[in-house]
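Is this the right way to post C-alpha cells for a design question? Let me know if I should format differently. Anyway, here goes:
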C-alpha cells in the first residue's frame, strides 16, 4: 500500500509579509497615505505598522512627505527595472515570432546618443546570428544594421559618426573610405532595405529595413549564410510586410 508523502509547508517570514502588505497599501494611493490609514488597510496594529514604515523609509523603499508615505527611490528603481524587463520580453517575443515565421535570425537596433545599439536578437541553433567578432558600434559602415541607421541620419550626423568611427576594411568586401560610404548612403531609397554581402563577416549576407519610431533611427535586420543569399530579399520583404502590426511593441524599446 502506497504511503502518501506530505509536502512540507514553506517557511514564511511574517515581517516580510507584513511589509509587503504595507507597500501594496501605499501603491493604492497615488498621493500617499498616512500611517494610520496604511495600518488599517494592511490589517496591522499601528505600532507594528510604524516600525515597518520606519524601516522601509530608512531603506529607501518609502519616504515621508508632509505626513503621508509615498514610494521612495529604491522602490522606483525596482518598478523601473521591472518595466524594462517587461518591455525587453515583449520585444524578444516579437523578434522570435519573425524568426520562426520566416526562418532567419532577426535583429532590432536603434541609433541612440550617437551610438549603434543592438537592442535584441532572436536566433536558434539551426539558424544562428552573426557572431559579433568586431564591435557593432565601431563598424556601422560595414554591416547592414549600421548602414541602415546611418542612412536615416542627416549628413552632419553621419560625418560626426564617421569622425569617431572611421570606415576601414573589415573584410575584402568592406567599403574602405568615408567618402564612398557617404555616396552610397545618399543613393539609398528612404524606406528601401539595405543589403550587404560579406562586408562584415565572410560567408554571410544581411539586409536591414529602416523603421520610423518617433525621431529615433531604428532598424530590423536579418542575416543568412552566403549560399542562401537567394532567400535574402524574399525574407526581408516578408518582414517588411508585417512590421506595421508590431511597430507599437518595438517603439517601447526607445524608452529603455
Amino acid at each position: 500500500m502506497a504511503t502518501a508523502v506530505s509536502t512540507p509547508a514553506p517557511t514564511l517570514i511574517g515581517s516580510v509579509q507584513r511589509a509587503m502588505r504595507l507597500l501594496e497599501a501605499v501603491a493604492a494611493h497615488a498621493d500617499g497615505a498616512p500611517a494610520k490609514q496604511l495600518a488599517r488597510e494592511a490589517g496591522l496594529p499601528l505600532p507594528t505598522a510604524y516600525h515597518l514604515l520606519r524601516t522601509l523609509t530608512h531603506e529607501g523603499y518609502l519616504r515621508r512627505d508632509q505626513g503621508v508615505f509615498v514610494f521612495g527611490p529604491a522602490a522606483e528603481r525596482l518598478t523601473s527595472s521591472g518595466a524594462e524587463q517587461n518591455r525587453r520580453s515583449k520585444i524578444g517575443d516579437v523578434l522570435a515570432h519573425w524568426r520562426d515565421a520566416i526562418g532567419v535570425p532577426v535583429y532590432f537596433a536603434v541609433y541612440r546618443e550617437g551610438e549603434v545599439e543592438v537592442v535584441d536578437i532572436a536566433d536558434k541553433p539551426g539558424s544562428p546570428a552573426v557572431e559579433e567578432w568586431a564591435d557593432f558600434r565601431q563598424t556601422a559602415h560595414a554591416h547592414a544594421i549600421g548602414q541602415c541607421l546611418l542612412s536615416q541620419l542627416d549628413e552632419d550626423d553621419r560625418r560626426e559618426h564617421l569622425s569617431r568611427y572611421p570606415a576601414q576594411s573589415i573584410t575584402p568586401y568592406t567599403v574602405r573610405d568615408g567618402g564612398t560610404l557617404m555616396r552610397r548612403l545618399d543613393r539609398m531609397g528612404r524606406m528601401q532595405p539595405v543589403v550587404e554581402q560579406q562586408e562584415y563577416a565572410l560567408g554571410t549576407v544581411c539586409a536591414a529595413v529602416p523603421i520610423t519610431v518617433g525621431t529615433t533611427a531604428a532598424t530590423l535586420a536579418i542575416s543568412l549564410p552566403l549560399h542562401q543569399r537567394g532567400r535574402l530579399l524574399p525574407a526581408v520583404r516578408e518582414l517588411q510586410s508585417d512590421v506595421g502590426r508590431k511597430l507599437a511593441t518595438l517603439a517601447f524599446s526607445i524608452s529603455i
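Format looks fine. Someone answered above. Worth noting: The first strand starts at residue 62 and ends at 65. The chain has a mean pLDDT of 86.
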